[in-house]
Design goal:
8 strands; 4-stranded antiparallel beta sheet; alpha+beta; 16 helices; 56% helix
C-alpha cells in the first residue's frame, strides 16, 4: 500500500507540473529542459490520458489488477515493485527531483479520502489505506530532504477516523495531529473582527465594531452569540451566516444589519445546512438519504421513544436505530440533555462515549436546523 501511494503521489506531482507549469518553464532554457524531462517521464508512465484524479486513480488500479492476474505470486519486494509500477520509476523520480530543487516548497494536500466511510465503522482496509498514504508521504519527505527539497503534506480526516488510526498504530508519534475543532466563541470573534478590520480599516474592540454594523440584540440575546449558537461551531458556517445576513441587509437598503435581517438569514442558512447534512448522511448511508426530513414539525425536545418512532418511520430497521441515532448525534443534528443543558458532539470533541445514550435520554434538535424543520416548542 505504501508503494502504491508513493507511485500515485509521484504521478500526481508530475501531472500538476505538466499541466500547470509549462508557461513557467519558458522563462529560461534550463527550466525548460527540466520541465521536458518531467513531461517525458510522466508520459512514459501514464501516456497522454487526461481526466480528473478519480479517473486516473481508477486507471492505475485497473492496470495493477491486470498485472496481478499475470503475476504468479507476490512474495518479495521485487514482486511488489513489478506489480505496482508500470515501468521503472527511477526516470520519473529523478526528473521530479531535479525539477523540484528549484522550488521553495512542495505541498501535498489530501482531502475527502474518508468521504463516505461509515461513522465509527471504518474497516481494517480503510485504515490500511490511510496508513499507507501517511507512510508514503514520510518516505518522500525523507528522500527529498536529502536533496534539500522542502516537502510537506497535510491529510484531512474526520475525528472518528483518526481515533481508529491511533488504535491501530503502534508508532503514533511519527505524524503530527492538528485538531481543527473550534469550541471557543472568542476565536470566532477574532475571525470576524479580522475580516471587518481588513475590509473597513476600522480599529477597535469586537463589540464596538460589531455594533456599528449589526443590531446588538436578537430577541433579547446578543446578536453574535445568537448566530454562534445556531451554527455547528465551524468557521465556514459562521462566515456563511454572517455574510448571508449582510447581503440581506444590503438588498433591503439597510444602513446596518437589523434583527429582521439576521432572522431571515437564519432561515436561509438553516435550509442550506439541512440539505448539506442530508447529502453527507446519504454518502454514509445511501439507503436512507432523507432521514433528517422525517423530523419536520417535530418538537425541539424529544424523548427516546419519540426519536425511535421517527427513525423507524423513516425505514430504519429496529436493530439499526441505535446506530443511526449515534450518527445523528455525531453530525451534531441532535444533542443530548445532560444536567438540564443540551450537549452536542463538537462540545466533547466528538467523543460520543461522553454522550451516553439509554432509554431515559432526552434529545434536542440543534438550533441550526430548527427553522428549516419548523420545529415546535413544547
Amino acid at each position: 500500500m505504501t508503494a502504491f501511494w508513493h507511485y500515485i503521489l509521484l504521478l500526481e506531482i508530475a501531472h500538476k507540473i505538466v499541466n500547470h507549469e509549462e508557461n513557467i518553464s519558458l522563462r529560461d532554457t534550463h527550466t525548460r529542459n527540466l520541465f521536458d524531462k518531467v513531461r517525458s517521464a510522466f508520459e512514459d508512465q501514464f501516456g497522454n490520458e487526461q481526466g480528473d484524479f478519480s479517473e486516473r486513480l481508477l486507471k492505475l488500479v485497473e492496470d495493477i489488477a491486470m498485472r496481478y492476474q499475470k503475476c504468479p505470486q507476490v512474495l518479495q519486494t521485487a514482486h511488489v515493485t513489478e506489480l505496482i509500477y508500470k515501468h521503472d520509476i527511477r526516470k520519473l523520480y529523478d526528473a521530479l527531483t531535479d525539477y523540484l530543487e528549484v522550488k521553495d516548497e512542495v505541498w501535498v494536500i489530501v482531502d475527502n479520502l474518508d468521504k463516505g466511510w461509515p461513522i465509527k465503522g471504518a474497516t481494517t482496509e480503510d485504515i490500511l489505506i490511510l496508513k499507507g498514504l501517511l507512510s508514503a508521504t514520510r518516505k518522500m519527505q525523507r528522500e527529498w530532504e536529502k536533496r534539500n527539497i522542502e516537502f510537506k503534506s497535510l491529510v484531512f480526516i474526520r475525528n472518528d477516523i483518526y481515533d481508529h488510526l491511533i488504535k491501530n498504530t503502534s508508532d503514533r508519534e511519527k505524524d503530527t495531529a492538528i485538531t481543527l475543532d473550534w469550541d471557543d466563541s472568542e476565536l470566532f470573534k477574532q475571525m470576524i473582527l479580522s475580516r471587518i478590520t481588513n475590509s473597513t480599516k476600522m480599529e477597535g474592540p469586537f463589540d464596538e465594531i460589531w455594533m456599528k454594523y449589526f443590531d446588538p440584540l436578537i430577541t433579547g440575546e446578543h446578536s453574535f452569540g445568537y448566530i454562534i449558537d445556531r451554527t455547528l461551531m465551524r468557521p465556514r458556517d459562521v462566515l456563511k451566516f454572517v455574510q448571508g445576513a449582510y447581503e440581506i441587509a444590503i438588498n433591503r437598503n439597510h444602513d446596518k444589519v437589523s434583527e429582521e435581517d439576521i432572522i431571515q438569514a437564519e432561515k436561509t442558512y438553516s435550509e442550506d445546512l439541512l440539505q448539506n447534512i442530508s447529502f453527507e448522511l446519504a454518502d454514509v448511508f445511501p439507503g436512507y438519504p432523507n432521514i433528517t426530513y422525517e423530523f419536520i414539525g417535530c418538537p425541539q425536545v424529544l424523548n427516546y421513544a419519540t426519536v425511535t418512532t421517527i427513525l423507524t418511520r423513516a425505514g430504519i430497521a429496529p436493530a439499526d436505530v441505535s446506530i443511526m441515532l449515534s450518527v445523528l448525534i455525531w453530525f451534531g443534528f441532535i444533542g443530548i440533555v445532560k444536567n438540564g443543558t443540551p450537549k452536542y458532539s463538537y462540545e466533547v470533541h466528538y467523543a460520543l462515549p461522553k454522550l451516553s445514550i439509554d432509554e431515559k435520554s432526552i434529545f434536542v434538535i440543534h438550533p441550526a436546523f430548527r427553522k428549516a424543520l419548523e420545529c415546535v416548542f413544547v
